[in-house]
Design brief:
Distance between the termini: 19 Å
Number of strands: 46
Number of helices: 13
Helix content: 10-25%
CATH architecture of the largest domain: 3-Layer(aba) Sandwich
CATH superfamily of the largest domain: Peptidase S8/S53 domain
Shape: globular
Amino acid sequence: MTPLCRPSVRVEAQAIRNSFIIKFPISDYSEAKTAVARKAFIDDLRRSNIPFSLPLNYSCVVAGVNIRVGEAYLPKIRNFPSVEHINTNNLFVLKKVSHHQTRALTNNNNALPQINHDHTGVNALVSAYRLTGKGIKIGIVDSGLDYTHPAFGSCFNTTNCRVRYGYDLVGDDFTGMNEPVPDSDPLDRCNGHGTHVAGIVAGNQGQFKGVAPDATLGIYRVTGCVTASDSSDSTTSAVIMKALQMAYNDGMRIINISIANPSGASTDIDAAYSQFLVSKGVVVVSAVGNEGQFSLWMTGSPATGTDVIAVGSYEAPTQYGYGISMTNPTGLRPLMRSAPQDSTMNFSFTNIQVLRGKMASGALTACSAVTTNLKGKIALVAQGDCMFSIKAANVKAAGAVGMIVYSSTDDVLTPLGFDSPVNIPSVRVTKTTGAKLVELITKYASFRISSTEQLMVLTNPAQNTVSYYSSRGPGVNLDFKPNVVAPGSYVYSTMPTNMGTYAVMSGTSMASPYVAGCVALILQYLPGENRNSVMDLISEHAQILFNAGYARSLTPAIQGMGAIAMGSIFDDLRLRTSITSRMGDLETQGVLPGYQSFSVTLKNIGPARYSFTSSYYRSIQLSPYSADKNLIMEPTITDKYLQLVYVNSSGKGTLNPRTANLFQVKILTTEIASNSFTVFGGYLKYEFVTGGKSYDRWLPFMGMKDYLYKVPILPPPTAPGYPTMGPATKWPSLGAKPTYTMVGTDLPYFGFIQIFNSDLVLIYIAATSSTGAVTYQLANLGYYTFYRRSWDPNSDPYYFQWDGFIVDAVTMDPVKVPSGTYAIQARWLRPNRSANATDAFITWTSPKFTIGWSS
């Protein structure tokens, strides 16, 4: 019997077979009460003669267990009085961005400063208030930490040691698919991700200082050390939940999770668990993920937890990177390049000429023999038409000693990927940089450059935009996800000492700990604040990213409240502004004649009187669906002016001492096509003046001129991925057949992809009686909680293979059906719907087929 599952082409969202997370039906999560509930559950299992193992137990934050048990027993277990809910245990990875990572750096005695502190205002805040995060406990759930690194005091769990807490929950050999073997030592000597993250939060060595360099750290290692494959970065929902429980028990005030399960929901078990921690006073900060190329709705869990601070990545004005310096002409700023194609190559040259490598046809892609004499020179070639290794071989044959390839976009600066080795150092530059090099070659007969493998501070051509890889929102309930963005590209931080001590990495994994460090500074200054007040401060002072060349960044669905800005975050704590009723979809709003509305609260808790004015900044609108309602990877951008109207004010006025003003705001939506599921939004900027000083506050808003529950879950019937019986093009199968013998692989099954999440997928078997009456009974293993959207229309499908059994409605045991004619009916729960609503599900019914059991 094969249940709904997904081939492990991408393991980031793969459900682990026969592994589940059980929640007990109790509200008191103390160890004593949880132990009683656990015993009742075990008793139920033993009375039913169900074989099982319990790798992990949960208490204090939630009451439950991680269970290993055969999937065939789930219907019976779901009916136990000792069970409230069953969740799948998902396998997902610390997905690194190859966007840019330096090779090992060994300058451990001369660490470089963290330049992002100038862009974000952290240096200004620290200088004004002398904040270092001292006394704040920050938990880091990641790949562990090399605490022998001098930036962390070269100690662990000793008196006066900043790395005071921690645990290895999994052991070196953990892959996510095997049993964890925990120990008390969270040392990271093989991965580096967690060490890099920890350095951003609280590293402290010489010039290099994290955001909160005096904070106390708790390190909770959740990945293994299996370096032969990507499985070294894998972990599970069950392990992450246990790490969160340990961090809470250790008194962590802030927990950072730079791990994301793509296209998550607030109902994901790790998101819900994180949300519960927030209700207990913990500030949980989580990366949104690195899936920005896969349209909207891709924010990963646990960042999708309602009050979890979800962090995306933006491009800072300057970054560390490898550079190309112009030596003829002189006086020009260096240009950024990628690292060479592999670690054996060095793109180090002094005052060397650069020429374009032309082919006989005049083309400049170097995909055939190059006629230009490149002896002793660097070849500049265009991307496209052939493999990079072919280009390299052709320019090398023409005498070149190095190659620069300029891309067709400005988004990606990954090292070149060669399908076969060619012994010539080769690097990539962006489209804009390539155009500049072409201009210089044309203008100067002997254009020359120099380059080394030393890091430089370089101007970022994509500055003040959301990083191309940063997962896009909004949340699946139209909430602000991400909440805020922070520097995530080319971030310089610590690495294990055996892996180079320092390195540059990119990803939302780097942005999230930056915000966690900023939260530590806020809590040091305002120790009584909770998550909501901390988030209000961050959002009110965030800077909206404007860059005309990168229109897609200008929307709350992608940048949330904007970029973290700490310099003036304590400028006037008497002012608080907030959106007090979110816009949402038409169901949230009610049907209004051509507009949607929200409310704004301006609150003054001090003795001063403020005058204020407001400004409206519209954002672009995004539609993630084609005309036939299929998901498209790059949403359609429109830039229509949506008129904003104040209902009960003019948008300006006076805010008296110790009062609050409430305003209703309407957005006219007649310019947006109905049934397009377009996400729109914008920003209100309030300027307050008192005593000759002014203070700015920003408020984003976002909505949809449609009913969210009607959003397409399946592709259109004519598109790839629509449910199909036995599609042979997607996996080895016998194809759709009128009759199945139920022997070996000759079983009926169907496949599909989802273009939106569904919290519940049910598979029923339809049988037609001799009188024509149709009955529906749940298929064996036909009940699935939370199936996330597929990555793209070309994703490998989910599939269901029916074994000829249904679930008895009374005993919950599998029952074999007789030979006969049947159909499969699949039902997907719509968003914002309960399972008992009349319009709860969309359905698909297969063609009828016959099964004939072999005797």
